Amino acid sequence: MPTDTPPVPQPAFVLVRPQMGENIGAAARAMLNFGLSHMRMVEPRDGWPNPRAVAMASGAAGRVLDHAGVFATLPEAVADCAFVFATTARARDLTKPVMTPARAMEHARALAAAGRKAAVIFGPERAGLENEDVARANAIISVPVNPAFPSLNLAQAVLLCAYEWGRQGAGTAPEVLALAGTDLASAVEVERLGDHFEERLEAAGFFFPAAKAGGMKLNLRNLWSRMPLTRADVQTLHGILRQILRRRDG
User: Fold this and answer.
1) Dihedral angle of Cα 63, 65, 69, 72, to the nearest 10 degrees
2) How confident is the model over 66-120, as pLDDT tens digits?
3) Which residues of 24-52 are buried (b: 16+ CB within 10 A; e: fewer)?
4) Is 41 in a helix, a strand, or coil?
5) CA dist 195 to 14, 188, 238, 244, Å?
6) Parallel, antiparallel, or unpaired: how do β-strands 98-99 and 69-71 relate?
7) How far apart are CA 184 and CA 200, in angstroms?
């Protein structure tokens, strides 16, 4: 949920001459998904406010639109920004750094940490930013998309940049194990499971020939330690072995 005073200065996402209210609303939703709330617009085609944008923003994201700034020109929209990124998929005859969204948002966070405000500008849906717009930027953001079909919807472009901003500040682990109400098995529990398997396999004559038994047991121990077994897993495997024994004895 956005706040009036974000703990880290946010970049302004500037929609330059957006054409459809639905895309403005979708962009607001994409921003709020990743904690961004500073939207600005330059000459929205259908004027402002736009009921279609509000309908598309759906609920909480309407707050992004409520506080959006509307400007007559791009220079006015980025006047308080120390660094401006321009999003574009087309080659430009302009000498500028070209960054991926990840690198751009990394740089934006470094600027924010130094107390400097950044802006990311997005062009209109039909043709994107004009060269005159891009010329006002310090760097270009280019998404590594399929070169045969590089066009992104306005809200998609906003989402990609917002995601990278949020991802880099979230401290979210790239992978976690969902334990579904149980805990990981302790080392001693896994050790006892290995003992149980060895006992049953030994009785079944599995470790044959005797010369290879040591290596076979070592591989099994390595298999158990390699698995992220839960306590429920261990109990299930013990139960399977006991049931097999009961069926055999029966």
Assistant:
1) -170
2) 999 999 999 999 999 999 999 998 767 788 999 999 999 999 999 999 999 999 9
3) bbbbbbbbbebbbbbbbbbbbeeebebee
4) strand
5) 64, 10, 10, 16
6) unpaired
7) 24
